[in-house]
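BUG: 3D viewer hangs when loading the predicted structure for this chain

Environment: internal workstation, default settings.
Expected: structure renders.
Actual: progress bar stalls at 90%.

Input used:
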Amino acid sequence: MLALKQRGTEAQYLLAARSKAIAAMFSITRRIHTS
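Structure tokens produced before the viewer hung:
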């Protein structure tokens, strides 16, 4: 039970980190295109 919750939190953390990285890359590319 506890291990399952831990895994779920880990997956959520990885998902958040990935989306954050994608957002950062997107904003960087947009900044390059605008300037």
